[in-house]
Amino acid sequence: MTNHGQKIIVFGKNGQVGQELQRAILSGKNNHTYDECLFLGRDDIDLTNSEALSTRLLQESPAAIINAAAYTAVDKAETEPEIAMAVNAKAPEIMALYAQEQKIPFIHISTDYVFNGTKTSSYTENDPIAPINIYGKSKAEGETAIMATHAPAVILRTSWVYAQKGNNFIHTMLRLGQERETLNIVSDQIGAPTNAADIALAILHILPQIQHKQDSMIQPELYHMSANGYGSWHEFAQLIFSEAEKHGIKVPLNVGEIPSSAYPTPATRPLNSRLDCTLIEKEYGVSLPHWKDSAIKCITTILENQNQEKVISA
User: Fold this and answer.
1) Residue 172 in 3-state DSSP?
2) What DSSP element (H or E) covers 108?
3) CA gyration radius for the chain?
């Protein structure tokens, strides 16, 4: 079935997942059946303005919605809870209610930060949420609001997102690695660094399946979807510097391990961010690559692009 004249709206076009969705859709790496994709960023729509969001949805009349937008400044959220709640909780609720009224697919991205991180094994979808910071609370409220609707919606919890572009751990480590001889990296937070490109391709794999079964979906579905395997931030940093060294990039002489307690931040982070992704593989056939394999590809691309820029500017 082809939805002639119908469009997908993607919120969060400037974010990591949003940019990768644009790249995947525009390059044809998808199997959706919609004619038009409208990508909206903060310059196009203010997600803290509920009335403006509702009006825009009515104006555009989308046949599917992907919400890759979020307030993701975890530490800043501690002093801006109202903005975090508006973007991460109220806006997704409005999108879900529209999806419910129009009976259209809605995919929403959430986070491992809805958990407190005290569990000793991987979290499943059935584990109770218990966020320990404002960002996590705002995302949890967004999930709860969506689940309270009867929209044909899928919530995807993922973790430790990075991409070729954007403000993320890889770019931070590459910058600090050239500035410092010694770096101490937190080693007691465990999770799965997840490539935004993999998330984007998975979303585009899931969307037509929701479209196919949306009439039988009586309530939103919730899934965990992060990279295979897991590691610490320290292990992630070591991988980044190992790849950088292969490309002749300066790296720190010493990369030490420290506990979270030695690196206090305004927002507390969960120590265990591991997500059990068994269910989404069973229901949608989605299994993301191992985090190290995907990270190496991304790091290599970033470094090669940097080298090309140097050659062009020389």
Assistant:
1) helix
2) strand 106-111
3) 20
- Domain annotation covers residue 309: no
Q: Note whether residue 130 is domain-resident.
A: yes
Range of the domain at 38: 3-167+194-228+273-289
Residues 239 and 94: their CA atoms lie apart, in Å, by: 40
Is residue 186, in this structure, part of any structural domain at all? no
Which CATH number belongs to the domain containing residue 81 in this structure? 3.40.50.720
Amino acid at 51: E
What sign has the CA pseudo-torsion 115, 116, 122, 126?
Answer: negative
Does a structural domain hold residue 161? yes
| Cα dihedral 79/82/86/90 (nearest 10) | 120
pTM above 0.85, yes or no: yes
Contact at 8 Å (CB) between 233 and 186? Answer: yes
Judge whether 215 and 277 are in contact, CB under 8 Å. no
Task: Determine which helix (DSSP H) or strand (DSSP E) holds 40, and give its type and residue range.
Answer: strand 34-40
Number of domains, the chain? 1
Tell me the mean pLDDT per 10 residues along the chain, length 314. Answer: 68 97 83 80 96 97 97 97 98 98 97 98 98 99 97 98 94 94 96 98 95 84 98 98 93 94 96 98 98 98 80 55
What's the token pair of residue 279? 């269910």
User: Which amino acids are annotated catalytic?
Assistant: 135
Q: In what helix (H) or strand (E) does residue 29 lie, and over which residues does it extend? A: none
